[in-house]
Amino acid sequence: MSISTSGLNLDHTSVAGTPGTSRPIHDPATGERIGEAPVHTVEDLEAAVAAARTAQPAWAALGHAARSAALNRAAAAIDRSAEDLARLLSREQGKPLNGPNARFEVGACSAWLRAAAATVLEPETVVDDGQTRAELHYRPIGVVGAIGPWNWPMLITVWQIAASLRMGNAVVVKPSEYTPLSVLALVEVINGELPEGVLTAVSGGRDVGEALASHAHIGKVMFTGSTATGKAIIRSSADTVKRLTLELGGNDAGIVLPDADPAAIAEGLFWGAFINTGQTCAALKRLYVHEDIYEAVCESLTAVAQAMPMGVGLDENNVLGPLQNKQQFDVVARLVDAAKESGARVLLGGNPDADRPGYFYPTTLVADIDNDNPLVAEEQFGPALPIIRYSTVEEAVAKANALDVGLGASVWSSDSAAAREVASRLEAGTVWINSHGMVNPLIPFGGAKQSGYGLEFGVEGLKAVSVPQIING
């Protein structure tokens, strides 16, 4: 089966065997059918794992320099196909081409591959006292299973595979059922620069994901998605004592201190919350604003939000798109409706057009809302931001820390020292100051509490997809 998107002709032959069925994939902005995705089976997964086990030793034996060179070539191949990949991503996921969206995501894929290739991880001498010499080395795990989400399907796949490949592992990828075409296309481009069997994508259903998570010959699972699914993966991985990296749900809090400049921070607040139309695990999802500047922040943020066009992703003018699927649209609608029914003040949005094609939910800002309202307490994962008033910093910190998740958080202030002091009290894997959600391939990233465990990116990301080995003597 193949799918063509402009100049990109992708024959998805990543798995030994031919899928028995396929299913249509539709554009969430228009409902238009854009292609057919293969439906692979557990038997196809078995073939992929077998091929990975066969290919992995030779891949590991190439050494870091040769593997890094292959990743750099793969990055260049992505760059050559960047526009076609971005257009496919826009049509399947819904995100616009422009802004921090489809073209941005594809460009980040090649950047992350290059960063993984360039990151240095040398053996470390931990003791050398004349009698004992102990060195710490990092060896490949073997076969890594990567289960990805639908919100940043290409980029998060690269997050999972770049370090794994660099460290000498083979990888079997299971994309989201909502966005398989984007990942299949990306893997096909990368595979033009890799030995056969080292990287495989298996486009199947939940049964394939469950089989991958429990497979006896997969040594590590990397998963990005919901906390509930993460817990299921933990349970299914127990019998084979798999290593895990889990980036799970979040409900990130931002705290605006009373000395902040509302106009200066408004655009940063907007993109912190509404990047990818709010469909980002580490997006700003609860905004706590000091009472002294509350109305000013609401006014400045509303002005920025009103100016951001939402529509079909292939329209070059848009920077916000639809929700990717009906299920997520219904979650956002339910939570906003609960806020409206409670008497909260809707500053913008909250009124989806039932006659408009696609899963568009308007950019929504909700003020004067209680901290225990469902729109605050639950992760909305969409274009709706609750803005909560607070009186003291202690109150804001307590509310920010009250939930059982802790992926990211942010502090907004004109005083960097004051912001850092507050940041040190927040229970989150990353705390940004005067920005939110910005990630860097050299800076480790991971969650706290029930937002998961394990680090990605940089040296720590390489270590996380390796087995540490002490050579002592």
TrEMBL record:
PROSITE patterns assigned to the protein according to its UniProt record, in alphabetical order: ALDEHYDE_DEHYDR_CYS (PS00070), ALDEHYDE_DEHYDR_GLU (PS00687)
Stretches assigned to the Aldehyde dehydrogenase domain: 23-466
Keyword list, A-Z: Oxidoreductase
Ranges of compositional bias, category Polar residues: 1-21
Top-level taxon: Bacteria
PANTHER family: ALDEHYDE DEHYDROGENASE-RELATED
Family: Belongs to the aldehyde dehydrogenase family.
This protein's name: Aldehyde dehydrogenase family protein
